[in-house]
């Protein structure tokens, strides 16, 4: 599809810096390390990219889907791309080829085919509603007003996770559960460039945090340490957690065309999350709760991990949900005098019930939260499947291809 058209002419794969939200999905997905980044941009190495398209469907914004046809000798180098603020325009095309156009604002994204190089699905569930993406971009963001900002985690704990409600007033901002938005924090970084957008999963259902209102909620963890445990003040998370009612924020998005819930009321949701990874699970659960249909057979099973119960966002509301509506399993890793427990441990304890869901073609699996949990959760699913005589490799491929295994870790 993207093969060079001749020895001398290249259809060069580029990433639009104005749309890219620097989420790293493309770099993680690329099977041949053709994508790299610096503080400023994500870029594609022209001499490595073979046009396999593996990175295109998973990109939540469509920024990845840009092509310029030019002489191979004139290909844009990595260093040059890293300095770009906008994509160069297509010059005179040297051969009879047509570049793929990037998604336009307001387009309904049609996800591409499932590729074999990613662990999760790159297609949505068959019954998912069609999402809107990129209605608002870096170049043309919209604004939302803060109508609520509450700390969810106990004040005595180190981890501050906030529930933030943003209202769009009369501005159209249609979203689906599982999608995310981008927040543009004010100010500039050390090199004088404006801060790039940070992505946050939507924690409310499609009809609003408050039903019938044009608002969304987010679940934001205040980053006070980097991944190595060194003290730092995360730019956007601190900005968000400090917002007051009435403050106005710049927003882009919505993003995401695959991590979506099935609309089919008989579909089962197996949800596995840690920390703020609970945001999309809350959105999906609340959507299902609001439209509980008589006679529907869809089950909800949740595995949710946190350090302690005091650090588990939405602990109160979650544990109040009726047991016949959702099967909730909590795993705490730092409860004093208790052994460390992760979500995958809780899944193994419930192996027969998880296996029952794995055997059912109506089951859709969602994993969201810490990057580190992905391996452990997939390993647990494999063991549970194989313990029940299922061939995990076959099942895994089917789940992926049928839009029934969705992974979003960060
Ligand atoms: P930065 O200023 O960007 O980073 C400061 C330092 O902290 C850097 O060294 C960085 O490497 C490190 N760092 C970045 N993130 C973390 C982290 N989470 N834990 C520890 N160290 C970190 N975040 C949420 O709180 N809620 C969400 O629902 C959510 N959804 C996301 C969905 C997707 C698809 C993705 C890709 C990310 C999501 N994030 C979410 C993470 C979010 O986009 C930001 O990366 C995070 O808030 C940190 O941004 P910052 O500007 O505060 O930190
Ligand atoms: P831990 O106590 O080992 O850090 P956080 O609070 O950092 O967002 O983490 C949420 C939960 O995820 C914590 O209980 C954390 O445990 C747990 N966790 C950490 N690593 C993994 C992993 N590899 N798999 C599953 N859970 C994990």
Automatic annotation (TrEMBL):
<dbReference type="GO" id="GO:0016491">
    <property type="term" value="F:oxidoreductase activity"/>
</dbReference>
<feature type="domain" description="4Fe-4S ferredoxin-type">
    <location>
        <begin position="42"/>
        <end position="69"/>
    </location>
</feature>
<keyword id="KW-0521">NADP</keyword>
<dbReference type="InterPro" id="IPR001709">
    <property type="entry name" value="Flavoprot_Pyr_Nucl_cyt_Rdtase"/>
</dbReference>
<comment type="subunit">
    <text>Homodimer.</text>
</comment>
<dbReference type="InterPro" id="IPR015701">
    <property type="entry name" value="FNR"/>
</dbReference>
<dbReference type="InterPro" id="IPR017938">
    <property type="entry name" value="Riboflavin_synthase-like_b-brl"/>
</dbReference>
<feature type="domain" description="FAD-binding FR-type">
    <location>
        <begin position="139"/>
        <end position="261"/>
    </location>
</feature>
<keyword id="KW-0408">Iron</keyword>
<dbReference type="InterPro" id="IPR017900">
    <property type="entry name" value="4Fe4S_Fe_S_CS"/>
</dbReference>
<dbReference type="Pfam" id="PF00175">
    <property type="entry name" value="NAD_binding_1"/>
</dbReference>
<dbReference type="Pfam" id="PF14697">
    <property type="entry name" value="Fer4_21"/>
</dbReference>
<dbReference type="InterPro" id="IPR017634">
    <property type="entry name" value="Benzoyl_CoA_Oase_BoxA"/>
</dbReference>
<keyword id="KW-0560">Oxidoreductase</keyword>
<protein>
    <recommendedName>
        <fullName>Benzoyl-CoA oxygenase component A</fullName>
        <ecNumber>1.14.13.208</ecNumber>
    </recommendedName>
</protein>
<keyword id="KW-0411">Iron-sulfur</keyword>
<dbReference type="InterPro" id="IPR017896">
    <property type="entry name" value="4Fe4S_Fe-S-bd"/>
</dbReference>
<dbReference type="InterPro" id="IPR001433">
    <property type="entry name" value="OxRdtase_FAD/NAD-bd"/>
</dbReference>
<keyword id="KW-0285">Flavoprotein</keyword>
<dbReference type="InterPro" id="IPR017927">
    <property type="entry name" value="FAD-bd_FR_type"/>
</dbReference>
<keyword id="KW-0274">FAD</keyword>
<dbReference type="InterPro" id="IPR039261">
    <property type="entry name" value="FNR_nucleotide-bd"/>
</dbReference>
<keyword id="KW-0479">Metal-binding</keyword>
<feature type="domain" description="4Fe-4S ferredoxin-type">
    <location>
        <begin position="11"/>
        <end position="40"/>
    </location>
</feature>
